[in-house]
Amino acid sequence: MACSNSPEKSNHASSVPELKENKNDTIQIVCLYFKEKNILHAIKFKIESYYHCPTVVKEMGMPESLISINPYKYEGNKIINFLSKQNINHYRFVVGLTSKDICTPKNGNKVWGVFGLGSRDGRGCISSTCRLKRGVTEQKLTERLEKVVLHEIGHNHGLDHCVSAYPCFMKDAGGKIKTVDDEPMDMCIECKRKINS
Ligand SMILES: [Zn+2]
Ligand SMILES: [Zn+2]
Questions:
Q1: How far is the CA of 119 from the centre of ligand 1 (A)?
Q2: Would you state the pLDDT for residue 154?
Q3: Which residues, listed in sequence order, are joined to residue 57 by a DSSP beta bridge?
């Protein structure tokens, strides 16, 4: 007659803390001329599961006013300003996705191409598949974009680039795709502590 209802005990003895749950902090995903629709669901799911938040998706084109001095690149900072201004519903962060090439001034180059850009003041971020998709499978592209998007949202949480000794997706990729491929799909314990504090 013994009722053997023994719930499985999960082992949370790991020293790495989980990120705190933020139930009412919805992230808005804005597709700004984002062509890789097949992987959108995976990106949305990754954001929700990693940062423990709901997301909503909005689709739109890329405004030509955000183009840089190079006609094939769009300026990351202008995109973030645009996303922030259209955030009239006050979503916690606005996470832009695009297939267009994006750039930011760096190392004396006004149109330095980047995988993504995120503001540390929490206004928003933009990630591009343009430099991630060359010659790779959809699965590989998904993995790369997931890491880039999680990295940019890390900046939105106030994180700077990680200089800890641990593997971490908040390291500065410096434009190198190998860095993205080699890094884990997780931030290190030091970055998690900063977000949780
Ligand atoms: Zn970064
Ligand atoms: Zn880190």
A1: 9
A2: 98
A3: 29
Find the 179 Cα to ligand 2 centroid distance in Å: 14
CA of 57 to the centre of ligand 1 (A): 23
Q: Give 25 Cα–ligand 2 centroid separation in angstroms.
A: 23
Q: Which ligand is nearest to the CA of 168?
A: 2
**pLDDT the model gives residue 7:** 44
Cα–Cα distance measured from residue 197 to residue 195, given in angstroms and rounded to the nearest whole number: 6
The SS3 call for residue 103 is strand
Residues of the chain with pLDDT under 70: 1-17, 19-24
What is the pLDDT, as a whole number, of residue 18? 72
**What pLDDT sits at residue 97?**
98
Q: How many whole angstroms from 193 Cα to the centroid of ligand 2?
A: 9
Q: What is the DSSP string of 16-74?
A: SPPPPP-TT-PEEEEEES---GGGHHHHHHHHHHHHT--EEEEEEPPPGGGB-SSTTEE
Beta-bridge partners for 166? none
Centroid of chain to Cα 2:
50
Give distance in angstroms: CA of 75 to centre of ligand 2: 27
The CATH topology of domain 27-160 is Collagenase (Catalytic Domain) (3.40.390)
What distance in angstroms lies between residue 13's CA and the mean position of ligand 1's atoms? 31
